[in-house]
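Entry: Peptidase M28
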Amino acid sequence: MRSEFGLRTILASLAPRCSRQSWMSRILQLVGSAAVVVGSAGAAYEASANDQLKAAIAAAANSITKDEVTELVDALADDTFEGRDAGSRGGRAAGTYLVKKFEDLKLKPIGDQGTYFQNFQYNGVSRNIVGLIEGSDEKLKNEVVVIGAHYDHVGYGRTGNSFGPLGYIHNGADDNASGTTGLLEIMEAIAELPTPPRRSVMFALWDAEEHGLIGSKHWVSSPTIPLDRVVFYLNLDMIGRLGKTGVEVIGSRTMPGMRKSISQLNTDSNLTLDFTYKIKEDSDHHPFFAKGIPFVMYHTGLHDDYHRPSDDADRINADGVRQLARLSLLTILEVANADQSPSYRPASVREIVVGKQMIEQPAPSTPPRFGMSWNRPEGDKPAWVVTSVTPGSPCEKAGLKSGDKLLTLSGRPIDDDSKFRLELLAASGTTELTVERAGEAEPVKITVEPAGSPIRIGITWREDPAEPQTVLLTSVVPGSAAHQAGLEPRDRIYTLAGKPFADTNEFRDLISKLPSPIELTYERMGKIVSTKLNVLGGEAN
């Protein structure tokens, strides 16, 4: 990183690597029964074909292994390549090594004069490496999905591109042997698919990224295939240090629905994904973004070894690279096989600065309907005791006091905290509390006029213009059904009762009327979670 995509055929394709036998059970889960009957021979055939596609994609994803990742990173980050500086002896040697990978997989050369190299002038001659897997759909193959990674690094380091010490080989294991390795693994996985993706897939290894994105800028200005054929770009830069903070996902807002798509593809790896709004001119995605081409970049973050000789292979999380290469493969295949062509969101440009603040700003908290808190002392079935009453609240106005023991709500015994909270929120009109009060021989009845409207679910939301068929939660009422189900502000709801919804209007109608329990799925930091809302009656939010 610069400073400043018949079952027998599919199974036969698995033979070359014995390591694939270990995930046969996963393929069988995806394929299911081959004798599916869906009401007609045509429908059954379609279902069978879909299962075969799923099995092929699962096989491709699982062909990416930790051992292969380790082998490739070790090779690329070896001292032999002297830090892979653009135009240098080590950089040219690395290019020759990488071209052999393209040749072995028989990709179509789309560089200069029928080769894989695209030469350009920098530090003598620097070289991009470009190859193509042609799509299988007669129409859609004219559209090209590009996956790229820069293979150069900073050589021995010098002032301006190294944090030192200078004069030592900077092997760039994370920056960017990791991304290059991910691309090679994805390239092999797609090349071995029984049928190529519907759209063509171009693989690009950029040179001279470390000197100002020179290689990718050169290709975009002098493309070896018409630039208007490129519909999507995926960038891999520094994916070798996966840790607890997860993965930064850059550019998801450049294409409608991309966050939801990536999160759904993430269900197997279940990585923590930070979908950022920022887009910087710091890697090879930017020349494509500047041309209005939607993109996504995966990145595991900067670290103390960045642009230092200590960025070596022994510090790479190889299993993390494997997981990110798998997710990247699934992303490429999702886009390359989609019925609809990718579309660019111009609004993503202005969202870089103000988007998150505007779109994800939490809504003001809802005023308390009653204005009291309580707990239950230890002992043999003691009553709930009021611990505080909010000044000016309905409960204070009604005469409730701290220390009162809560006995009944509208004549019903209070014996379940969660249910009691739901009943308070859903209360409609005048509500009677019965309490036991110190100094009073008989229970005291307190009549409360709750503030606001009844609350059934306990959420507010808004629409995110980048994510159709999704609602973004802006608030969750404490104690509500939503709160008890684990929902939080900024969660994104994808389905209700197992089905997607068209828009916020349909969501509002469904959420207010569906009977309890309401099943839903939501996404938080790229992880999709299923939960149930245990709600009371009534049509309200």
